[in-house]
Amino acid sequence: MSVSLPLAIEATGLTKFYGGVRVLDGVDLTVPAGSVFALLGPNGAGKTTMVRMLATLLRPDAGTARVAGFDIVRDRHRVRRSISLTGQDVAVDELQTGRENLQMVGRLAGLSRAQSRLRADQLLERFDLADAGRRRTSTYSGGMRRRLDLAAGLVGRPAVIFLDEPTTGLDPRSRQDMWQVITELVRTGVSVLLTTQYLEEADALADTIAVINGGTIVALGAPAALKKQVADQRLELIMVDQAAFSRVRSELGARVLTAEEAKSTVSVATDGSSGHVRRLLDDIDPTWQLVGHFAVHEATLDDVFLALTGRPASIAGETKEPSHV
Amino acid sequence: MSDLIVADRLPETVSGPNIFAAAASMVGRSVRLSRRNIEVLLVSLMLPVILMLMFVYLFGGAIETGTAYVSYVVPGVLVLCAGFGSASTAISVSQDMHNGIMDRFRSMDVSGAAVLSGHVVASVIRNAASTVLVFGIAFLIGFRSDADLMGWIAAAGVLLMFILAISWLAALVGVLARSPEAANGFTFFLMFLPYASSAFVPIDTMPTWLQGFSAHQPVTPVIESVRGLLTGTPVGNAPWLAIAWCAGILLVSVVLSAVAFRRRTS
Questions:
Q1: Does any domain span residue B9?
Q2: In a domain, B12, yes or no
Q3: Minimal CA separation from A17 to chain B, in Å
Q4: Set of chain B residues whose Cβ sits within 8 Å of the Cβ of A85
Q5: Which fold has domain A232-298?
Q6: Is the pLDDT of residue B3 over 50?
Q7: A160-191 CB burial, b ≥16 within 10 A, e <16
Q8: How far apart (Å, rounded) are the C-alpha atoms in residues A308 and A135?
Q9: pLDDT digits (tens, 9 = 90+) for B33-69
Q10: Residues A276, A278, A282, CA angle at the centre, nearest 5°?
Q11: Nearest C-alpha neighbor of A168 from the set A185, A143, A149, A192
Q12: B58 in reach of chain A (CB within 8 A)
């Protein structure tokens, strides 16, 4: 190919240790300019470490990376002028108003006083905070704070945006708002690397998903391709009794995604359509005597891990990543 | 939307943060935050006044200093309160160190020097305001000074120097502390120093084993020179000693806080 696409992020063999524990183990990834890349994984998978390293806040113990064309160690000052980081913790001052927070960030980004004021106005308007701009952020709801935090990240017009779990802890409504904001952001041509614990979120936002677990990438691909490997949804069957449970579980064998003996429940993959669910029920329980109830669930991160690695995701908090150092 | 966030890059000249602009906006932030933190504001403004009234009216009658006790005790109250005030500086620095906002500042290439100098300048302003308030009330309750303008300027200089040194020391403690609560423990240390000096009682009334420490610790020359300059009595080399101590503390604090900041944030 004669034309090479510019890369927003290009990482090779990134490795990080914390007190002898290998938190990241030789991670490679490439993010083409103008695309959204999602790092999907449970707590302690190494997502935050990865983001903090790419945002120049942590030095890699091994490996190299370029962000917006600059080396994250040698050229970290130039990287910093091209990126913004919106972390898991909201990084705004509670005792300042929304407007004051944005103006402060504008001044720090090198804008003049007048430019900062203009930029703050634009962003408050854009993020639906125009009325709240004069209030201290201690009075904001969780969703408003996240929006302000994201707005603060955009003041300096970054080319590459890092979003570390942008919707964790938000209610469903605020999460939808956030998704819409991120989608619109991407349409303007910036590149985004986001981390999430929600398959649904990665699916909704990302062009490419990397599933990360225990410090390594265990699967990589477009959402559709990944979902083909993973059950998109699962059919949960609650059996009438223990005998039915044991019988169905042994008959289904490898098709069982999850089994819970205490609740006499097994689950299998489905696409969620009524035709498929009907056929599965007929197939598993042709005499209508074994299955008591059923439910269809969206695949969760746990299902993805189970499908990709054959074992559940590492227990949350087992290798805790420090969010600040 | 598109005209807002599109990568229409800013001109190169404005995209590089300039250390002075960054420090100025950090100062603005810290001043605004301390103005709005009512508890800190009350402590830093009211406490010195209350302490002075307490010393003058509760203990003053029993302490023999050879002058009106209010004139004797004002420098000590000011130094004691500089210690209090800087404890709140240590706490705010520590809060910043353990908050997501530090990640934002660092990912924007804002230097540690800018962040810390914002806190230090706000601390100096808080202390200077409470100093003016203390002097105002001291005059109302009988403080009298024989100092000329030069004496006042020199006393203000020594006090300011001390406040600056203690504030930067507090910033260092804030960077080093594992938590804001730990940073708060700093208060006790700084609170103790003025008591074991000539701040409230003459040193020659102390037990001999304490006199050696009291006469040679940094707070004593600061108090001696401010008191001497304001009462117009000879100060000897106390101001030079005070300035040397403050410059030393300041230098060590600035250097160590820069090193510690880098360590703590990488």
A1: no
A2: no
A3: 13
A4: 103-104, 107
A5: Alpha-Beta Plaits (3.30.70)
A6: no
A7: bbbbbbbbeebeeebbebbbebbeebbebebb
A8: 47
A9: 989 988 878 878 888 889 889 888 888 777 777 778 8
A10: 115
A11: A143
A12: no
Please write the tens of the pLDDT for every residue from A76-98: 999 998 999 998 888 899 999 99
Which is higher by pLDDT, A113 or A323?
Answer: A113
* Contacts of residue A254, Cβ cutoff 8 Å, sequence gap at least 6: none
Closest CA in chain A for residue B6: A188
For residue B5, tell me if it sits in a domain.
no
Domain boundary assignment for chain A: 7-228, 232-298
**CATH number of the structural domain A7-228:** 3.40.50.300
Is B127 a member of any domain?
yes
Listed by number, the residues of chain A in 127-146 with a beta carbon closer than 8 Å to a beta carbon of chain B are 136
- Three-state secondary-structure class, residue B152: helix
Determine the length of chain A.
325
Q: Do A58 and B266 touch (CB under 8 A)?
A: yes
- B150: tokens are 């030069």
* pTM, rounded to two decimals: 0.80
Size of chain B, expressed as the number of residues it contains: 266
SS3 B210: helix
State the ipTM, two decimals.
0.83
Strand order of the β-sheet with A291-298 is: A258-260, A265-270, A233-239, A291-298
- Look up residue B8 and give its DSSP letter: -
CB contact under 8 A, B106 and A57: yes
Domain count for chain B? 1
Min Cα distance A172 → chain B (Å) is 24
Q: Are A51 and A162 in contact (CB under 8 A)?
A: yes
Domain with B120 in it:
19-199+215-264
- Residue A53 has which token pair? 């390293």
Cα nearest neighbour of A162 on chain B = B107
